[in-house]
Amino acid sequence: MKSFLLIALSFILVQNLAAQKEATTFTDIEKAKAYAVENNQSILMIFAGSDWCKPCIQFKKDVLESTTFSDKLGEQLSILYLDFPARKKNRLSKEQTAHNEALAERFNKSGAFPKIVLLDTNEQVLASPEFKGQTALDFVQELQPSLVENREKKD
Fold first, then answer.
1. Beta strands 115-119; 42-48: pairing state
2. In sequence order, what are the residues at sequence separation of 6 or more whose Cβ sits closer than 8 angstroms to the Cβ of residue 72?
3. pLDDT tens digits for 46-64?
4. Quick check: bond before 145 cis, omega within 30?
5. Helices (H) and strands (E) in the chain, counts
6. What's the predicted TM-score (pTM) here?
């Protein structure tokens, strides 16, 4: 009985530690910035069409929701997920739509989807990696030099 309890507690502890590595996701840039400042992170801004853009859906599933991504970068990134859904049932509030469109005007003038932009907490662009179906590990390796460079600037 004691060994069962010890195994169960160990499992719960491991699950909690794994959950702590996950990147925190926001839909508001001010909240993402505040969290990033507080936790010494960069901001990964993603322009996505969650209900119509197949590469956006693939990026979210294969990269953002992967354990590889969260294990390697979860503590270094604040995710700013800006959705542009097409279906009426997924429509955002007017305020959220205006917020997303204002950021698209600044950071995604070409209207690319998915558009991924790595920012520092002053909203300066550090990198703009493209998602071309690469694995989560390949995407992580693409981001890491920019993250290291940003951390070195802060120190």
1. antiparallel
2. 137, 140, 144
3. 999 999 999 999 999 999 9
4. no
5. 6, 5
6. 0.85
- Scanning the structure block, which residue is given the tokens 């739509």? 97
Distance of CA 21 to the CA centre of its chain: 12
Q: Which tokens in the block code for residue 37?
A: 């400042």
**Alpha helices by DSSP H, the chain:** 2-21, 29-38, 54-59, 67-73, 94-107, 136-154
Which residue type sits at 122?
N
Average pLDDT for residues 126-130, to the nearest whole number?
Answer: 96
Q: Tens of pLDDT along 82-108? A: 999 999 999 999 999 999 999 999 999
Rg of the chain (C-alpha set): 17
Separation of CA 149 from chain center: 19
For residue 12, is pLDDT > 70?
A: no
Give the integer Cα–Cα distance in Å for 33 and 117. Answer: 14
Judge contact between 56 and 50, C-beta under 8 A: yes
Q: Which fold has domain 22-148?
A: Glutaredoxin (3.40.30)
